Amino acid sequence: MPVRGRGRPRSFDPDEALRLAGERFRTQGLAGTSLDDLSEATGLARPSLAAAFGDKRALYIATIERLTARVEEHLLRLGERGLPLGPLIERLLVGGIDLYFAGADQPEGCLIINTAATAAASDDEVRARLSAFIAMQDRRITGLLAAAGSPAPEAHGRIVAAMLHSLSVRARAGEPREVLVDLAKDAASLIAGTNSSSGGGAAKLVGGA
Amino acid sequence: MPVRGRGRPRSFDPDEALRLAGERFRTQGLAGTSLDDLSEATGLARPSLAAAFGDKRALYIATIERLTARVEEHLLRLGERGLPLGPLIERLLVGGIDLYFAGADQPEGCLIINTAATAAASDDEVRARLSAFIAMQDRRITGLLAAAGSPAPEAHGRIVAAMLHSLSVRARAGEPREVLVDLAKDAASLIAGTNSSSGGGAAKLVGGA
DNA sequence: GTATTTTTATACAATCCCGCACAAAAATGG
DNA sequence: CCATTTTTGTGCGGGATTGTATAAAAATAC
Known about the structure:
Two copies of one chain form a homodimer.
Chain A (H helix, E strand, L loop, with lengths): L13 H15 L6 H8 L3 H8 L2 H24 L5 H17 L9 H10 L3 H24 L5 H21 L3 H16 L17
Helix pairs in contact in A: 1-2, 1-4, 1-6, 4-7, 5-8, 5-9, 6-7, 7-8, 8-9
Chain A binds a DNA duplex (30 and 30 nucleotides) through helix 3.
């Protein structure tokens, strides 16, 4: 990688291209996205993408790693606020919901949880990145809970991460934001031991279909 | 649909073909599975599949509906055993793990949670089936918890369903069965109020990667 | 026993997708 | 001011996938 090359400098920001490619991957998945789709999404020609990132699979993995790093930063920043246990967990879950509803015009959930899970079954590299992402979530959330005085940070950290996984799937299924926030609040009070069980306004409407 | 046709009867069991097609879809997802793959998986020629089920998307949706019906039966049968709350939730979660590890030689998770979520973002029909599946889970699990005397069946029912979603994703990521069972036990005791928190043997190994 | 109806299997045409090769453009180093 | 190097955009060929059309096979009704 030329630190300061001699030829023509590239006219695009690689990280921004990665972000745009990730948006498209998030909607269509790895197998469902063509190079033409990615070219359209990023505004770059096919050969430019190939030269910068390799083939489609490598580009997909790069978007996963970019998102993993960003989520980890997000979790670390959350720890600097010194919140007590209950509000911390609620903030953790509602912050996830914010991410799942961000970006496109309709809720799409998480790129990794919702699309890498599909590719993981037939692609060991993708499976390893999915595993690494979840391990990072478990580790960072466990750390946050421990710092906030949780009586069982490891077990409860994995349960909080599990709630995030479901919130992503539910967002993708079209559940409205308020319903997800209610679920997040119920889960937060259960895990934090703050027993206003179903106080946050438990799901009144269950059915969708 | 000829109840008893006059011509040649079909030489295959449609439900079994649906099951085999679902196995392949579970591994590769909708976009990642070709008609040749499905022909190989079911042992039927392409035109036979087309005549019986329509195009690839219709076949995929049919496998989703088949699985939805089977899971609902499974949940209803579980209610006939009259288990107390704690063991009921644990049985619910471990039963899910059993399904996620069944079938292929390596854990694959749930067809709907792990692959329909990908397709849902760009296919309204699939999204509707995903939503219907989750709504069914929430409804049936809520019913089970209510019958077992849960103090907050709706809120806790959705949380139990959420744990199933994460267990499916985690199975797909390659987490070993014992680790998932530990997570299931921790979640069950938290939700049931049986406070042997982290007593089931909380996750000692968190990292993977 | 024959005709009819439905399923099965092979083959074909159209489309899409991928990767690579080629020529033009832009900016630095001498 | 010129040459070199890297990026950019267009175009082409190979391969795969989808959907359908056509002929053979099988079983029931008459």
